[in-house]
Design brief:
With 274 residues, this protein is mainly α. The protein is built from 10 helices and no strands.
């Protein structure tokens, strides 16, 4: 009788695939129906462009050189955004890992850094965006710093709490065997922190993209966020929608790659506990 309850019933693999695809199919169907209705009423409607219109726009931006610059705008924008995002995430990850381990492992560092990290994490990153542009100018520096400022406090707090949650017996045993503080950090704490770091990176991808797009929208000459906000005044949804879907796809691929690395490099972390 218990197995007949809904909470105990699980879909087959084939059913799971169809169920996962169902929301996407419903959204696509709603869009196509809405687009047909609006275009029937007004062939020049820009709010819900037809798939053919979107396809023509993608071909023009991604596979046709720009008449003025000769560049393929779609790929130029993608490269610029990924470079900024990669630089910001790399700095934030390394900085957050180092400071988080220090604050979680060393009592003097914890007493010094914990209040500062807590306050820093409460500052809305977008609120300091004008300050960053004033200090770092309108170049690449301000955009990268915004990403760092936006996600690094999360890394620091998460790494600190994770290190503090590690079993104290491990640290005591390592010291009993003669390990120094440096050896404890590198040989005991760091390996157990890496899977958590990858999970934190996955959780930070969404905010990082948000801060990147905000910075590009205000001051930039190329980038995915720049292009979206450039054409919004013309209601060019045939440009905006593909760019939004492309950003979503890039974020999904990044998340998948980080998840794959975590499973392959640290399979023991998925077995439960520390």
């Amino acid at each position: 009788m218990r197995n007949r309850r809904l909470i105990n019933r699980h879909p087959s693999r084939a059913s799971a695939v169809w169920l996962a695809a169902l929301p996407f199919l419903l959204v696509a169907a709603v869009y196509l129906i809405g687009s047909d209705m609006r275009l029937d009423a007004n062939p020049n409607d820009k709010l819900l462009p037809s798939l053919s219109k979107i396809g023509d726009t993608i071909h023009r931006l991604a596979f046709t050189p720009d008449k003025r610059s000769g560049a393929y705008l779609f790929w130029v924008d993608t490269g610029a955004s990924l470079l900024r995002l990669g630089a910001g995430m790399l700095i934030a990850t390394l900085g957050g890992l180092a400071i988080g381990i220090a604050a979680g492992l060393i009592p003097y560092a914890r007493a010094t850094l914990s209040p500062f990290i807590a306050v820093l994490s409460m500052i809305p990153p977008l609120a300091v965006l004008p300050i960053l542009f004033i200090v770092f100018g309108l170049g690449e520096g301000a955009k990268v710093v915004l990403i760092v400022f936006g996600v690094m406090p999360f890394f620091m707090r998460d790494m600190q709490l994770w290190v503090q949650s590690l079993p104290g017996e491990q640290l005591i045993k390592a010291q009993t065997l003669g390990a120094s503080s440096w050896h404890v950090a590198l040989r005991v704490v760091l390996p157990q922190t890496m899977p958590r770091l990858l999970d934190s990176m996955r959780l930070s991808l969404g905010p990082a993209w948000l801060f990147l797009i905000a910075a590009e929208a205000i001051a930039s000459t190329e980038g995915l966020g720049y292009r979206i906000f450039l054409v919004r005044r013309y209601m060019s949804m045939d440009v905006i929608l593909p760019y939004v879907m492309w950003i979503t796809l890039l974020a999904f691929v990044m998340d998948f790659v980080l998840s794959w690395i975590s499973r392959k490099a640290f399979p023991w972390s998925k077995l439960g506990g520390h």
